[in-house]
Amino acid sequence: FDIRLNDFFRSSAPESSGTIIMNPPYDERMPIEDACSFYRRIGDHLKEAYKGWNIWIFTANYEALRKIGMKPSKKHIFYNGPLECRFHLYEVFA
Q1: What is the DSSP letter of 15?
Q2: Which residue blocks in 1-94 are alpha helix, DSSP H?
Q3: What predicted TM-score, i.e. pTM, was given to this entire model?
């Protein structure tokens, strides 16, 4: 497998299919100005640049996660310390 570090919003899929696992900020320890808008941008970029990919997103911000704009095909609940977190799989269809 291949691990890359880059600016997600400037990235494009290197292959026609694959898997991304992401852990965007929850707006807990790492504050972000508008979590819902940030997660909406993530969803928009996934739908544009990662068609055919599987995307796992791990977050404690369930309200923002709903702004991804796709229906998850799998959902899991985990805890990061006291925080209830969601780990959702999104299949980005071509």
Answers
A1: S
A2: 35-49, 62-65
A3: 0.90
